[in-house]
Amino acid sequence: MSRPILLAVSHGTSDAEGARAIADLVGAVAAAMPEVEVRSAFVDVQQPDAADLLPTIDGPVVIVPLLLSRGFHVHHDLHGMAAKKPDAVVSAPLGPDPRLAEVLADRLAEAATPTPTETDGAVVLAVAGSRDPASLTDAEAMASLLSLRLGRRIELAYLAAREPDLPHALREHPDAVVSTYLLARGFFFDLTTRQAPGRRVTTPLLDGTTVPQPLIDLIVARYEEASAQLHAAPTPEAAQS
């Protein structure tokens, strides 16, 4: 029996390098799961649009949000479209998760050599931000995971929707380094660099060169968790009996 299709859904970006990095990630996941058909779609900017593509797919589908926290796109867009297809299920988003903290720590290590003050000082975790209360919980949990990984204090800053914003956080922590909590280059990464002139700013989780193995493992795990839920759910015929 064939396994459910993995539909990897990202936000979408007009940044060519960011789009290429996301495509490389999806390709790496497909290579890691040769027994699973892996397809990609988007909720904004790029095509195919997930809401248009999903109804055309025959058979069970596991939608894996390539998003770092809960929010409107997960709760409204993805769960809304999955509700119209009985054999579709939405996995948890990618974050928060210790594997993301691992990649964030690697990005910090790859950045320019820190000054002694930076070594012991704060890290400002720059998060896209959302008005959804669950996204706040997820951001705080991710900051805790990164703090545990690094043994350093983590200060949150939001690039939209919430306070403190990044300029305020950097005024409060003038020796801090900026850890970019974004999946790939795009609007929010450009905003981060504009708002942190002269600061050390890490590359996104996908740096455009190699795809981190922890990200591949995380997506595979999200698929397996949701696939198990899909198989455990009663079929429409069973529910009517």
Task: Sum this structure up briefly.
The protein is an alpha/beta fold. The chain has helices spanning 16-32, 50-53, 72-82, 98-110, 116-120, 133-150, 166-172, 187-195, 213-232, 236-240; strands at 5-10, 38-42, 61-65, 88-90, 123-127, 154-158, 177-181. It has two domains: 5-94 and 209-240, Rossmann fold (3-Layer(aba) Sandwich), CATH 3.40.50.1400; 98-195.
Q: What does the model show?
A:
The protein has 241 residues and is an alpha/beta fold. It folds into 2 domains: 5-94 and 209-240, Rossmann fold (3-Layer(aba) Sandwich); 98-195. It has 10 helices and 7 strands. The chain has helices spanning 16-32, 50-53, 72-82, 98-110, 116-120, 133-150, 166-172, 187-195, 213-232, 236-240, and strands at residues 5-10, 38-42, 61-65, 88-90, 123-127, 154-158, 177-181. The strands form 2 sheets. A 4-stranded parallel beta sheet has the order 2-1-3-4, with helices on both faces. It has a 3-stranded parallel beta sheet with strand order 6-5-7, sandwiched between helices. The two termini are 24 Å apart.
Report the sheet with the most strands, covering strand number, pairing sense and barrel closure. 4 strands, parallel
Beta strand %: 5-15%
Strand order of the largest sheet: 2-1-3-4
The number of helical segments is 10
Radius of gyration using CA atoms only: 19 Å
Domain module count: 2
CATH topology of the largest domain: Rossmann fold
Approximately how much helix is present in the residues?
A: 40-55%
**Tertiary shape:** elongated
The secondary-structure element order is EHEHEHEHHEHEHEHHH
* Total strand segments: 7
Query: Averaging pLDDT over every residue, what do you get?
Result: 92
Distance between the termini: 24 Å
CATH class of the largest domain: Alpha Beta
**Low-confidence runs of at least 5 consecutive residues:** 115-119, 235-241
State the secondary-structure class: alpha/beta
